[in-house]
Structure formats: structure tokens, C-alpha cells
Design brief:
Strand content: 15-25%
Shape: globular
Distance between the termini: 50 Å
Order of helices and strands: EHEHEHEHEHEEEEHHHEE
Largest sheet: 5 strands, parallel
Helix content: 25-40%
Strand order of the largest sheet: 2-1-3-4-5
Radius of gyration: 18 Å
Mean pLDDT: 85
Low-confidence stretches: 128-132
Amino acid sequence: MTPMRRILVVDDEPDLCDILSFNLRGAGYEVDVAYSADEALAAGIAVYDLLLLDVMMPGTSGFELAARLKHDGLTARVPIIFLTALDTEDDTLQGFHLGADDYISKPFSVREVLARVKAVLSRSYPPSAAPRGEILEHRGLAMNPAAAMVTADGSDVVLTKTEFDLLRLLLTHRGQLFSRHEILEKVWPRDVVVTERTVDVNITRLRKKLGAYAACIVNRPGFGYGFDAEANAK
């Protein structure tokens, strides 16, 4: 039996929280509400399967909370969907730069939120019917897709779901170059509208986390990104 997914709604608007909670519960999810970032942290975010997170809240903002969560090994892989009135391209890119899995601008329809929640949960927690024991390795860099773990020279590398999928794509196709458009199609779901700049943002984030292996992720102008096994050869 598929477990009931737990969702935490973090927003300082009680009426909006009530509407989202009612509809999410009707769709079969277990839902809790926090009216601030501090309340969300007190709720123990690591136990949730998804966060619906407002940005503009009194005190700690949603962006600040997301940055904190993505730097904590216990919460880094909890998917985040931003729900916010900030709707410029720069705002959206900042959200994805912080590791968001989706970004929905207010006002929105409840049906849209439910559809996006379902999509994010589906790709974040795929069916376990096809576990893969293959370990992808390059020198001291190792990826275990089945366990969703990456290590570099024996140390854990904490990646978001998007960063993990991006590294897996490049690592499994060493020597092959992918354009930004191809990466968007292979890593991001079709129902999420993002620009090609989002690829650059996530590549930058991924490189920062890979340390000595960052040089392996190369960009060939006019052709795209790839994993060059010789790039960090000593």
C-alpha cells in the first residue's frame, strides 16, 4: 500500500492555509499547517514529504528557510514548492537556485496546486518496483541511485533532488554533451515551466558541492554541458 504523504503548508495567511489544507486532505494527503518559518522548524520538517512554502512572511522569509533546509542533511531532500506573490523571472530563478522543486505564483487555482503537488511527489518518491543496485563511480566520486546517496572521497555530498538527477544524467553519459534544452527535458518535468537559465543556476550549485570533482562538469560553448572524466586528471 502506498503510504499517505505528509505535507506541511507554511503561510501566514490563515484563510489560504484552510483552503489548501481542506483540498489537500480531500486529495488523500496528511496535512499540517505552520504560520511562520519558526513554527515550521518547530514542527520537525524532516518528517514531511513536501513543503508548500510562502516567501513573504514576518520574520524569517520562505527563501531564508529554504536555504537553511537545503544546507541541513536531515532536510535537504524534502521537496519544496514555493507559493508566492513574487512572480518576476528573477524571483522564480532565486527560488530554483535555492533548490525548489516548483514555483507557483499567486493567485493560483487549487486544481493547479494539486496537480503540481502530485507531480513533485511522483518524481521525488518514484515506485520502488525497480530498484537499481548500480553504483556510478569516477575516481573518488560515487553515486548510489537506489539509496539516493553521493560521496566524494568518502564524504557525503548533500544534493537536492534536482541536483541529484542532473548529476546522474551527466555521470551516466560521460563524454556526451547536452544542450540546456535537452537537460530541461530530461531532468525537469514537462508541467514545470522554467527557463534555460535555471540549468545554469543548478549546474553552478552542483559544482560548488562537488569540490575537486567540479571541474568534471564542463560547458562547451555552443554545444552544452557534459561530464569530462579527464577534466580533473592530475
